[in-house]
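User: Hey, quick favor. My workstation is busy. Could you predict this chain's structure for me?
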Amino acid sequence: MFALGLGGLVAAAALAAADTPPLALLVGNKDESTLAIVDPVSGKVVGHVPTGQDPHEVAVSADGKLAFGANYGTGPSPGNTISVIDVVAQKEVRKVDVSPLRRPHGIAVAGGKVYFTAEMNKAIARYDPAANQIDWLMGTGQSTTHMVLVAKDLNRIFTANIGSDTVTALERAGTSGNWNTTQIPVGKGPEAISFTPDEAQVWTAHSRDGGVSVIDTATKKVIATLDVKTKRSNRLKFTPDGKRALISDLDGGRAYLAVAGDNRVAIVSTGNGADGMAWADRR
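Assistant: No problem, here it is.
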């Protein structure tokens, strides 16, 4: 009986593993507190994973096996957890309490660790999944520290501060473990933020004036301001070749994608309050 039971478990595990494709799109659904797992080939949602309250942003480990959701919470109930999700098994394996930090939002995985912002604390923190603990914390002194970028060499961090109209640049000071902080004035309500593929620039879209600031990462100064006339920009990403910057604008309720090869237009619904997204790549 034990052998039969074990065989059933193995079969079930194999089936679950087949359900999540090697390349999957992960979407945090704020209003229903779930993570949707989407097959980008079929355009279908293959699973929903319960998370903490109101997940805003999602990041994925380098091997594509674990996702980390920043559970922001609601207006009257600030969040204080990060959900660790097994993408293949489609389940939350750990809910990390980051107290006394509140309202985790922007999140990024770099060097095997998870960097995240804590809006209410005006800070950036780092979670070590292997040790299951917060091992680094740095204040920005700015209001609504929202999104976060970590350079590939782990020596530079940038974060957009919506309430202070600034981008904070953090640079590691040699081997001492200290960090130098620079506040870079930008436009009104900087929210969306992204490196160019070569990390020579940081672009941030202003949610309150329709502009984009281009920051030189070496000098930490704004070298250009673009008037792109967005109504309420909230995300900015570059194409891999760096030739185009794509900005999402909250001036509508649905996204349409033309799929020329299939002669169709795709409309994808993942859940209520869809927001942060990330790719889980196990190929």
